[in-house]
Amino acid sequence: MTHFLVSEDKPDGHRLEDLLRIIRKDVLTRCSKIADDLRPEAQQVLGNNVKVLEHLSEAIRLAESSTYILDKAFGPSQASQGGPPRIGTV
Fold first, then answer.
1. Which ranges in the chain belong to alpha helices (H)?
2. Better pLDDT: 87 or 62
3. Does residue 52 lie in a domain region?
4. pLDDT, tens digit, for every residue of 43-79?
5. Dihedral sign, Cα of residue 49, residue 55, residue 56, residue 61
6. Distance CA 30, CA 49 (A)
7. Total of domains in the chain
8. Which of 35, 47, 55, 79 is 20 to 30 A from 10 in CA distance terms?
9. Which residues span the domain enclosing 77?
């Protein structure tokens, strides 16, 4: 069973890329709050967050690619309406 993602058991779940976008937005909000803090610790955290944002953006691109591949091969997902998974086992 998934906790956050769409599945047979959780038809009201989220797509991976949507969750990653929410997280990316939260990290951006945190960055904006520490951008003017010139202490070395704050600047290091800001730099780390920028790297995290890069990884999140790449993860979003990968998740979107997977959705595109599945949509092209099997049509739109029916999981949110209780349909079966497009790939994998039940």
1. 16-34, 40-74
2. 62
3. yes
4. 999 999 999 999 999 999 999 999 999 999 999 888 7
5. positive
6. 9
7. 1
8. 55
9. 16-81
Residue 24 lies in a domain: yes
User: What angle, rounded to 10 degrees, do the helices at 40-74 and 16-34 form?
Assistant: 160
Do the beta carbons of residue 42 and residue 35 sit within 8 Å?
Answer: no
Cα maximum dimension of the chain: 52
Task: Please tell me the pTM assigned to this model.
Answer: 0.86
User: CB within 8 A of 79, min separation 6: which ones?
Assistant: 6, 7, 8, 11, 13, 85, 86
Q: Which residue has the tokens 């790449």?
A: 58
Is residue 76, in this structure, part of any structural domain at all?
yes
Question: Does a structural domain hold residue 68?
Answer: yes
